Amino acid sequence: MSFRPGDRVQLSLGIDLGGTEGTMTARNLNTGQSRSFTLSNNSFTCRSIVEWMSEEFFFSNADLSGMELQFDDCLYSRNGGTAIGGLSSSTLYNQGCTAEKEDDGSLLIIY
Q1: Vertex 66, ends 64 and 68: CA angle to 5°?
Q2: Could you report the per-residue pLDDT of 35-46, keeping only the tens digit for each?
Q3: CA–CA dist 25, 38 (Å, integer)
Q4: Are 28 and 1 in contact (CB under 8 A)?
Q5: CA 105 to CA 107: how far, in whole Å?
Q6: Other CB atoms closer than 10 Å to residue 53's CB: what's the count?
Q7: Per-position b or e across 58-75, b if 16+ CB within 10 A of its CB
Q8: 3-state helix/strand/coil string of 66-97
Q9: pLDDT value of residue 60
């Protein structure tokens, strides 16, 4: 599975009810291919997801310049907030960010 410039990529993140494990799925809407990974953390943020993408081998050759990540009610933060949807001591919230690829290959995250 690979991504090329111009491909439309859908990212989804599912969190278990315990709030300690998540499954990230990246789907290439141009080809229909998808791949999932398990993320075991207590915090899932736009920054951590972009860092995960930059480290995964199938993103290594992709042009991520200007890529926008927008999450609707799927980012999970274990911060002692009001419980939502049965998630104890947690908060679900909306967050978006834009990532730009630098000349050295690193990703710059713009909020």
Answers
A1: 90
A2: 777 765 544 555
A3: 9
A4: yes
A5: 7
A6: 22
A7: ebeebebeebebebeebb
A8: CEEEEEEEEEEECCCCCCECCECCCEEEEEEE
A9: 54
Name the pLDDT band for 87 (thresholds 50, 70, 90): very low
How is residue 105 annotated by DSSP?
Answer: S
The token duo for 51 is 């860092």
Structure tokens given for 25: 């799925």
Q: Is the pTM of this model over 0.85?
A: no
Both tokens of residue 45? 């943020």
The DSSP 8-state label assigned to residue 62 in this structure reads: S
The kind and range of the H/E element at 46 are helix 46-55
Answer whether residue 56 shows pLDDT above 60: no
In the beta sheet, which residues pair with residue 12? 25
